[in-house]
Amino acid sequence: MIDKQMLDSLNTKEKEFFKKSLEGLIKQTYAVEKEYKELNTSYKNLQDFIKQIIEVLPNALWVVDENRDIFLQNSEAKKCKGLLDEIDFSKESDEIEYENFFYLIKINKAYGRTIISATDITQEKRGERLASMGQVAAHLSHEIRNPIGSVSLMASTLYKRVQPKNRPLVEEIKKAIWRVERIIKATLLFTKGVSINLSTFQAKELVSDIEFAISYYSFSKEINFFFDIKDIELVADFDLVSIVLQNFLFNAIDAIEESENENGYVKIKLKETEKEFIFDIIDSGVDFEDKNILYEPFKTTKTKGQGLGLALSLEIINAHNGKIELLTNKKGFKITIPKQN
Predict the structure, then answer these.
(1) Class in CATH terms, 57-120
(2) What is the pTM of this model?
(3) Hey, is 328 helix, strand or coil?
(4) CATH of span 123-193
(5) Which of 24, 30, 53, 222 has an alpha carbon 20 to 30 Å from 312's alpha carbon atom?
(6) Would the CA dihedral through 10, 16, 21, 22 be positive or negative?
(7) What are phi and psi of 116, to 5 degrees?
(8) Would you tell me how many other CB atoms lie within 10 Å of the CB of residue 337?
(9) Computed from CA positions of residues 60, 66, 72, 75, in that sequence, does the dihedral angle turn out positive or negative?
(10) Strand bridging mode 323-326 / 276-283
């Protein structure tokens, strides 16, 4: 507060000088206030900009204080918030597994804060494991193929020479050999990569191939097979499409074998649209235990099989620029193959 007696003691010139000084101080105060507001706005804009930057990052990111309380995090970090408790802050980098996912952890410290990033490397890890398993599988398949070929030849010779009453036993041996040869073929095809050889054929030819495969596949229950496949002309890789249908068919048989019912059915229906061919494969077997691993190689929840059937089928259909989908109203699959231009 300005003292009144002091003002009264001032002469006119001094009062004028005091007035101008006060006006200048007020103007300077307003200028400082304006500059503060602009600086505060700039700071908030910078904060928002930083938040937007970390939000678009594909990896999870946290900024924590000395007590490990979260100062800043993005939405990816919120999705795996429990991961933060598993991180060893004494390491600058690390790889950890959390809820069946693998993460690459990077840690930096600055200005009393700790910045942690977690990058999902699950696909890379699975790719490494798959490549390793594929190499082993391919090597084993090569090693087994020649002995199995010899056993198959001897079984055929034995079938012609044994007494008729013993032929059913040899037939079972031949079926077992056929299944092993099929596994070897699928493994080598998967590890080498799928290359399609297009040809024109009648859809009915697939039925004959499928029925032959069924005759070599072992199952104990009464299963009815319905093939609604009209005489439609297809342009695709006949052998590979047949393998796909067999894979789904055998999966359906195994699902029926695992069910509590004494019998079951498998239906394969082919329909044609203006642009594509569509196969529906429906069965009465048990439902899928884990839909997330349906197409993951070497993983299966079945008691039979090596977990390659659906993975190989997906590669084959992808090579035809088609797609495989789960049916929503029934237990089964929809396979779409576009028509060739």
Answers:
(1) alpha beta
(2) 0.56
(3) coil
(4) 1.10.287
(5) 222
(6) positive
(7) -120, 130
(8) 22
(9) positive
(10) unpaired
